[in-house]
Design a protein that fits this description.
457 residues, alpha+beta, 2-methylcitrate dehydratase PrpD, 60s Ribosomal Protein L30, Chain: A, 22 helices, 53% helix
Length: 457
Amino acid sequence: MVDNPLLILAEHAASWRSRPLPPEVAHHARRALIDWFAALLPGCLHPPATLLAAAMAPERGPGRAICYVDGMAGPLRHAALLNATASHSVEFDDIFRDAGYHPGCPVIGAALAAAQAHGASLEDLLRAITAGYEVSCRIGVAVQPSHYKYWHTTGTVGTFGAATATAVLLGCDARQTAHAIATAATFAGGLQQAFRSDGMSKPLHPGHAADAGALAAIGAAAGVTGALDVLHGPVGFAAATSEDTGKWAKALASLDERFAITAMTFKNHGCCGHIFAGLDAVRDLQLEHGFGAEDVARIHLGGYSATKEVCDRPVVNTEQEARFSAQYCIGAMLVLGGVRLAAFEPASLADPRIRAVMPKVSVSLDPELAADYPGRRAAKVTIGLRDGRELFRYQPTRKGDPDAPLSDAELSEKFRELAVPVIGAAAAEALLQALWTGDALPGAVPLLAPATRQAAE
């Protein structure tokens, strides 16, 4: 029985201001920062971040936090909102598997803006990121898997991560941090329907989480208080958004021993993570047996609950729908050899070869795989070929998960692939090396002009 999980988490979070920062943890925090920039930079060219940046420009005001969408400095919350939104737009941001949650976009979106606004060091930023991941990922574990029935964890739980990271950078003690987390609970939101239908709302979830979490921390630093039983109380966050008042003993297990930021999934495909295991299986079968898209008669994907409920989309009309369609993404894997940014360009969305594969793909819920979710994200793929061969692969994990991680070299290549067309090779390499080994905070990175971007691509 846990007395008050919020106070325990706040005490832990505040300790990251001064506790020893283990080299391994610092390295993983740098990996998270690199992966965040990799997802952020192409997102700076996409709506809704571009639309919001233009619409909100008259409200910007003075400040030192960089909005990477337009390269201008401004207030902490302005940058946090827009950067966090942009970093979730192309679906390449990180995942904490056990919570079904993308921590990077809300946590780093808020933390980097706070660090820039207050002149913090890079080490200060790494400490804040680590604290924000730790608190929010553990709260996510407490409310999953039932939370994911109606709620988008990145929008809800992300608010706690943003509040925690900002509180650390504002120098909040454990009491103030507790009030930041408590106030963040009342701001948390983000509905599943936002991405089960077409629209631009999904990237706004981490944007709002970063902004609202930063507001909660700013308020707490100024003396604003929150209800300290709001996480586990009878009508608190867990009770309102999951099937009980929270699995707090599970969530707090090994606190101070195992750190969430060392167990991140870094995406290897630019789409919904619930399709990843299936895509890995299709790719490996194609490499092993040498067939093309035109050789396929049928494909069946057996998955866990979210694979079926979120990603069984046999008809797609937009980029947003395609990123959440197992049928489309499997077609793109077979035709294009990968599900990267190019898979969602207009030419690919209209490609008759991909469209021809889609009706051949069926998706079902596999009870065995469903029982292992969310701790394991597996798939069973059966491919029937036109020559009569039937191929099967059980994919127990996903490339990029903690048990099959991207190496530092692979993460660097992902960064270059996504960053170079946006900021150019020289700027991308300089930023990458600074993030791996530097001591200074990253600053503004001018985006290439459209004509230059096309030439770079």
